Amino acid sequence: MNLKELQTFCQDNGESAFRGSQLYEWMYRHGVDTIEEMSNLSQSFREKLSENCSIQTLHVDRTNPSQIDQSVKLLFRTLDQQFIETVSMVDGNRHTVCLSSQVGCALDCRFCATGEMGLTRNLTTGEIVDQLIYVRKHIAQPITNVVFMGMGEPFHNYENVLNAADIFHDPKGFNLASTRITISTVGLLPQIQQFIQENRRYKLAISLNAAFDKDRSKIMPVNKKWPIEDLIHAGREYSNQKKRQVMFEYVLLKGVNDSEEDALELAGLLKNVECKINVIPYNEMGGEFTRPDTQTIEKFVNVLHKHRRGYRVLVRWSKGQDIAAGCGQLAGQTA
Of the residues 10, 15, 25, 85, which is catalytic? Predict the structure, then answer.
């Protein structure tokens, strides 16, 4: 529950709205595991809460630390025996947590392990928030960034994802700056427009992954409904309104979208768009796609740099390669 919901809940149960504020801080600022730890609540109210409420929605089934970097992949089990994965990535003073928003995904992107699962259900706000509570409590490095780039399409679970982001941003919650919270989407245009119209302050990442509609439609069926031109227009609108650069993510797939022609087309599409292009060399999963070789990756990036007009180019080498913790690799794997 958010602050307003907790205040209403307390008033409906014969307590003051102030008790709701106390509950909110205990759960989100302090991350307590049990109601009994909420020492400034009356004993009778704590007993009532313990009998009727739950403040823990997830249990850790497995912790899988990387042997090559400081990444940790966590397998959570939900109360209805579903599985989701969360990744903690520490790099110097930066600690990024990649959160899941759904059990599975309905969008069937061909290069994504989560898409192969299909969709079971949305996560609740509590299940999203609990992922971050656990990481904050069990990994010493302070959390600096949150990305909704784990299992699921965040904008298919719009309300719960934005409720969770608001709790992360709230000074009485996790107190993360809005610029430290990124929500990624494959390109659900109505939700992108809603996000812009509501003047949401969080960073937006749109998964482009191709420069030509014919190629994008083959690997991302959603493109048949909302093609590249529509997404770039929406991204430009976001950047213009927010005075903050939208990020277009581009997963490089060997022989699919990694040619010089692809790079030139992408540079032309994003010419004079205030944005970041996040080039992600594909994380292999033993399927039909493979990662381009280093020379091809460098050539692609160099073409983008050479023709750069208004955009920035970044290359993101995924962490946790030895534990399948990279972009597109999360699939709620059980032992």
Answer: 85
| One-letter amino acid for residue 221 of the chain | P
Taking 90 as the threshold, does the pLDDT of residue 329 lie above it? no
Known catalytic residue: 85? yes
Q: Which domain holds residue 41?
A: 3-52
Q: What is the pLDDT of residue 321?
A: 53
Q: What is the CATH number of the domain that holds 31?
A: 1.10.150.530
Model pTM score: 0.92
Active site residue 36: no
Same domain, 71 and 29: no
How much of the chain exceeds pLDDT 90, in percent? 81
φ, ψ of residue 79 in degrees (nearest 5): -65, -25
Q: Contact at 8 Å (CB) between 4 and 21?
A: no
Residue in 109, 112, 275, 327 annotated catalytic = 327
Across 149-261, where does the E strand assignment appear?
A: 181-185, 203-207, 246-252
Which residues have a Cβ under 8 Å from the Cβ of 110 and sit 6 or more positions away?
218, 219, 220, 288, 289
Per the domain annotation, does 192 fall within a domain? yes
Give a yes or no: residue 335 inside a domain.
Answer: no
